[in-house]
Amino acid sequence: MANPRTLFPFNGGVHPPDHKAESTQRPIAILPMPKRLSVPMRQHGGNPAKPVVQAGDAVLKGQVIGEADGYISSFVHAPTSGHVVSVATMPVPHPSGLDDLCVEIEGDGEDRWIARQAVDYLARTPAELRDILCRAGVVGLGGAVFPSHVKLNAHPLDTLVINAAECEPYITCDDMLMRERADEIIQGILIARHLMEAKEVLIGIEDNKPQAIAAMRAAAHGHDMEVVAVPTLYPSGSAKQLIQLLTGKEVPSGGLPTAIGIQCFNVATVYTMHRAIHFGEPVVSRLVTVTGNVGQAGNLEVPIGTPFGELAAWASPKPDTDGYIMGGPMMGLPLTDMNAPVVKASNCLIARSPSLFPDAPRAMPCIRCTRCAQACPADLQPQELFWFARASNFDKAREYKLFDCIECGCCSYVCPSHIPLVQFYRYAKSEIQAQDKDKKLADQARERHEYREFRQEREKREKAEKHAAKAALAKVVASEPADGAADGADAKKAAIQAAVERAKAKKAAMALNSQGDAVTPEPDKQPGDQ
Ligand code: SF4
Ligand code: SF4
């Protein structure tokens, strides 16, 4: 278990009870295919997918039902064979609690796949591989669900970090994945390393997972990558904190890890890269930990789109269960509707009970104890951010790097006044984002208005110029001879030439007269007279 590698601890962090043993007592189970699945089009970062099926369509497992809309988007697939019942808004797991667009599929019980094709990734260009992964719907399964093909478009790289820390209490799906499918994870890492031309690969796993560490070390043997056991400390699984811990490098404020030559992928994400490349399988299922106040906790392989109620039923919730959380207790989301489906971001379902999750005591005033600052892994001043957010002083909140807050909840966890600090930060962030959006729309509207005025002005000017040119031409035409023997320009030229000739002749005649010859000059003639 010992590491030869020097670690670079980040500041802060907390040690909540981990509750991981409950769900690691049995192997990964396969949840039976539900009769109906509702598959959201928005289950990745960026633009939601655009549905490409309609009610009544027959679909096969793995068939595209939603296409990526733009570069930062991803494809969505049917998790089983059957037919499309509807394309409509339905309950989804989202902090807003609002419904969202889903494709509802009724399975035919046959679970028939589309034709699948393995790819020799060494024979493909990086752009082709990224396209294959985008079309397979590969996104970050650690919770952020950012499209992986976008993150893979950064190379060469100094260090590829594989995030297998899984630091949040209760969640064990990555642990079980590593215990049971370590070889396949390594195959996925080889693909990512090849794509990003990474010089070094570090796989960070918290030291409370000795079986996963052993399995990954055995599988990584001979592949020139290092499995690093890191101390169990929440939130070491946050990308920035894990990068610092493993490399000593800090991701700049507001920047990306690639700015310091590093990229980070969750361990389950690289597993899906392997399935997509070596088996032609898109992401149609994921591992979900089901735990908390239940009779049977464990990890399930669950088709995307399965209602959470089916997972809860599998786990036999105890009678005093009073709610559910999607995700962990520190960063998770309360589920308001158990018909909401499992999505790519769903790593855990926790059944709550009053004894496991007692109500938070009433919040008291801040006593400026600074415990929150000591616990903050992002080196922020949570108490100051709290004041600014509460006073809606958003400029100050920005100045104090509100957007570096990873919403880990360490500050709330240690606050003796039980202030729900993270809720204030989320509120402030959403307000700022809404203001930014409004400002952008207003700027765009102003630019459109200014351009319209400029265009109208230009059209007016061009019209006036055309009018003037037309009038000038009319004047010239009016001055032309009536019979029009030559065109206007030639006629004018000829008239001038004739006038010059007559002037010369007159001068010559006058000169002769002055010498005594009687010469009478002819009257002026026009060219048309000849
Ligand atoms: S821990 Fe709570 S009481 Fe203490 S400074 Fe932070 S917000 Fe205030
Ligand atoms: S939630 Fe934000 S402010 Fe609070 S400890 Fe985490 S990073 Fe710091």
Features:
single chain, disordered C terminus, 3 domains, Rossmann fold, 530 residues, 6-stranded mixed beta sheet, binds iron/sulfur cluster, alpha/beta, 4-stranded antiparallel beta sheet, elongated, Fumarate Reductase Iron-sulfur Protein, Chain B, domain 2
Mean pLDDT: 91
**Main beta-sheet annotation:** 6 strands, mixed
Tell me the CATH architecture of the largest domain.
3-Layer(aba) Sandwich
Give the full name of the CATH homologous superfamily of the largest domain: NADH-ubiquinone oxidoreductase 51kDa subunit
Small molecules bound: iron/sulfur cluster
Write up this protein.
- By secondary structure, the chain is α/β, with parallel strands linked by helices.
- It folds into 3 domains: about 325 residues, 3-Layer(aba) Sandwich (Rossmann fold); about 110 residues, Fumarate Reductase Iron-sulfur Protein, Chain B, domain 2, CATH 1.10.1060; about 35 residues, no CATH class.
- Helices cover about 35% and strands about 15% of the residues.
- It has 13 helices and 17 strands.
- The strands form 4 sheets. Strands 1-14-13-17-15-16 form a 6-stranded mixed β-sheet, with helices on both faces. Strands 2-8-7-4 form a 4-stranded antiparallel β-sheet, with no helix packed on it. The chain has a 4-stranded parallel β-sheet with strand order 11-10-9-12, sandwiched between helices.
- A hairpin with a 6-residue loop joins strand 15 and strand 16.
- The C terminus is likely disordered.
- One iron/sulfur cluster binds next to helix 11 and helix 12.
